[in-house]
Amino acid sequence: MPIATLPKLRLTVGTQVLSATLYDNATTRDLLALLPLTLT
Question: pLDDT class for 37, splitting at 50, 70, 90?
Answer without folding.
Answer: confident
